[in-house]
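Shipment paperwork, digital attachment
Item: protein structure file
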Amino acid sequence: MVTANEFSHVVKISEVGNHSRNLRLSADKAARHALMARFDLAALDNLAAEISLKHDADAVIATGRFTASLAQFCIATHDPVPAKLDEAIHIQFIAEPTSNGEVELELAPEDCDTMFHDGQTIDLGEAVAQSMGLALNPYPRSPEAEKILRAAGVKSEEDVVPVGALAGLKDLLAKK
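Attachment content:
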């Protein structure tokens, strides 16, 4: 079942038709503000997507791109860290499995961009929002972050020296 989300853009599956259907989505101010709260962003100035929909057997395939101008909070200083995203989208919408008990689904790597629909509609806005969430930097750092982290005692990769069984591994890998 499709629920209303911050950046909801519901499309009836019956309206996709037999040919490609092209759509342009753009998050308004209210949607951007709500997505900022959901993804803990300092700013979300723009979120837009151009998507083409087509039927493929029992699925609806969405392909295209999304762009976003945003700022995340630095993990060390909490300062805004600006970012621009420009990412491809390739999502397969399939019917949600129906079962009275627990269902275990096994997904192959090519199935990782799969979303379920209720048989009637798909929410492209939610698909774009989730794609943006996956594209965010998990550890955004401001220019001051290194200094703050070092003062707190956090070592950089260059400062870490392998010990024990791993001590010779770095040299072995470098010879390959």
